[in-house]
Amino acid sequence: MGIQGVAARKISSAGISTIVFTSALISIVTSVTNAVVRPASGPPPRANLKGHVGTFTAYVSGAILSGVLVGSYVAWLVWIPMAAVLLALVCLKANWKMEWRAA
User: Fold this and answer.
1) What CA–CA distances, in Å, run from 78 to 58, 69, 74, 83, 90?
2) 56 and 93 housed in the same domain
3) Domain check: are 55 and 21 in the same one?
4) pLDDT tens digits for the chain (103 residues)?
5) Could you give the C-alpha distances from 98 to 1, 21, 49, 88, in angstroms and in order?
6) Are residues 81 and 43 in the same domain?
7) What is the pTM (predicted TM-score) of this model?
8) 101 shares its domain with 63
9) How many domains, the chain?
10) What is the pLDDT of residue 42?
């Protein structure tokens, strides 16, 4: 998957998808590598790490939270996906209301 992600990024193909976690990690490593090993001449490369680091942080935080819940509060673990789905539906409904009012 990592090789696929690097190859897709190298040929600038948006149609080849890979797992978000792997893509975020590849983007972080590629940006840092380009910033460290850049040619002496020419403009410095753009480092757009904010979104990728945020995605990576969200995954790590979720993994830590899940680990704590599995270790201590197994009964609560079942409700996390349900809460996520409900939150997504509430956000979707709020977005529809805002679009309907704007139209």
Assistant:
1) 19, 10, 8, 9, 20
2) no
3) yes
4) 556 566 666 656 555 455 666 777 888 888 888 777 776 666 665 656 777 777 778 778 888 887 887 888 777 777 888 888 899 899 888 888 777 777 6
5) 39, 31, 30, 15
6) no
7) 0.46
8) no
9) 2
10) 63
Domain that holds residue 61: 2-72
Tokens 């696929």 locate to 4
51 & 98 share domain: no
Q: What pLDDT shows up at residue 47?
A: 57
The residue whose two tokens read 């020419």 is: 42
Q: Cβ atoms within 10 A of the Cβ of 52, count?
A: 19
Which residue stretches of 14-49 are H helix?
20-36
Contacts of 70 (CB under 8 A, 6+ apart): 77
